[in-house]
Amino acid sequence: MSNNSVFILQAEYTPFSLPKVDCFNQMNENSPETSTESTGEVNTLDVKEDGTNSASTSSSELTYNDKDIPSADESSSRRNNDLENAGFTQEEFASLLGKYDYNFKPGDLVKGTVFALEPKGAMIDIGAKTAAFMPMQEVSINRVEGLSDVLQPSESREFFIMTEENEDGQLALSIRRIEYQRAWERVRQLQKEDATIYSEVFATNRGGALVRVEGLRGFIPGSHISARKIKEDLEGEYLPLKFLEVDEERNRLVLSHRRALVEKKMNRLEVGEVVVGSVKGIKPYGAFIDIGGVSGLLHISEISHEHIETPHNVLNVNDQMKVMIIDLDSERGRISLSTKALEPEPGDMLTDPQKVFNKAEEMAAKYKQMLFEQTDENEEQLATTLTENE
C-alpha cells in the first residue's frame, strides 16, 4: 500500500452535528489547514456518522445543479412570484407606468421629430401613441412652395398642439401658430422702441397699401403714404415705415410711410426754418405742402393775419411757395407750417404774396429772435417763482 493511501479509522465518538458545507467556499479554499492530500491525517470533522470519509461522499451532495442557477437574461428563469414580493400588484405597476405617459393639451409646445413628408402635410413623432400630423397650411406664417422649404426628414424642432386627439388618437400640430405668436411679440417690441422698419409693398387697394412685417400682414392707409408716391405704383417698392397701431386681439397692424419720412426729415429741420414747398392738396381747413418728400399742413389760420374764407382764394395746387416751420411733432409725424409769420404787413399774403416770399428769411430771423426772447423770459419767470417758494 502506497504512502499516499488514506486510512479510514473506525472511532467511537459522541455524535454531533456537522457544520454545513459551503460548496463554493470549499472549492475556492486551498489552505494547509483544510488540505489532506499530503499529510495522510484525518480530521475528525471530516468523518461522517456512518464512518465514511467526506472524500468518498457522492459528488451530487457536494456539487450543484445547473438548473438551480437562474439565467441572467431569460424571462423564463424568473419566478412567478417576483411581483408578489415587490410590494405592489401588476395593476399598480401598470398604473405607475401610466403616470409617466405624456399628457398633451391644445396650446402646448412639444418637441417632435419629422419622419415623413406627405403631399398634404408632415407626420411628426412626439412620443404619443399615434404619430401627429401637421397640415400643409400650418407649416409656416410665410408662403412656401412645399414642405421641404421648411422641414427635412429626421429634423427635430418645436411644434404647437392645435387640437385634442381625434378618434384615431392623432394630434394636429402647427409651426405657423408658433411663428404667429412670436411675430406679434417682435412687432410689439419694435413699436415700443419706436423703430423704423423697411417692408415691401405686395399689393394696393382703394384704402392704401399692404406689406408684410415679421410675416404678419400690415396696412398703410392712403393718408399715410408719401405725397410724392402714387399709390398704384408702389407695388414691389420697399418703404420705410413707422408703427401706428399694433393690436393682436383685433388682428390689426397699421403703419405709416409718411411718419417715417417725417421723422427722417425732422432730424434735419428746426422750428423757425424757412423751406420751399409745393401745394399738393387743398382742404377747407388748410393746404398740404410738400417739403422735400414729406407733407406739412398750412392751416387756414396760419395763411394770413387777415381772415380767409377758404384757402382756394389764396392758393392753387402745384403753387411753389416759401413757408416757415412753426412746429414739429415727431410722435404724430406732423409738421405745422405758416406764411402768416412771414408777412411783413398783415394781409400781404392776400395782396402781394411775392413780397412775403422775398422777405421770408428776414421775417423768419425776427421770428426766431422773438422765440429766443420768449424762452429767456419764461426761464427768468420760472427762476423767480422757485426762489420765492424757497
How large is the share of residues in beta strands? 15-25%
Ends apart, CA distance between termini? 134 Å
Task: Please state the average pLDDT score.
Answer: 75
Class per helix and strand makeup: alpha+beta
Strand arrangement across the biggest beta sheet: 3-2-1-4-5
- Give a short account of the largest sheet: 5 strands, antiparallel
* CATH fold assignment of the domain at 270-370: OB fold (Dihydrolipoamide Acetyltransferase, E2P)
CATH classification, class level of the domain at 270-370: Mainly Beta
Q: What is the overall number of helices?
A: 8
Q: What does the model show?
A:
There is one protein chain. Mean pLDDT is 75; it is low at 1-86. The chain is an alpha+beta fold and 390 residues long. Among the domains are: 109-179, OB fold (Dihydrolipoamide Acetyltransferase, E2P) (Beta Barrel), CATH 2.40.50.140; 197-261, Nucleic acid-binding proteins (OB fold (Dihydrolipoamide Acetyltransferase, E2P), Beta Barrel), CATH 2.40.50.140; 270-370, Nucleic acid-binding proteins (OB fold (Dihydrolipoamide Acetyltransferase, E2P), Beta Barrel), CATH 2.40.50.140. The longest helix is centred in the C-terminal third of the chain and has 30 residues, at 360-389. Helices cover 22% and strands 25% of the residues. The N and C termini lie far apart (134 Å). The strands form 3 sheets. A 5-stranded antiparallel beta sheet has the order 3-2-1-4-5. A 5-stranded antiparallel beta sheet has the order 8-7-6-9-10. Strands 11-12-13-15-14 form a 5-stranded mixed barrel. It has helices at 23-28, 59-62, 90-98, 176-192, 257-266, 348-351, 353-358, 360-389, and strands at residues 109-118, 121-125, 132-135, 156-161, 173-174, 197-204, 208-213, 216-221, 238-247, 252-256, 274-283, 286-290, 295-299, 320-329, 334-338.
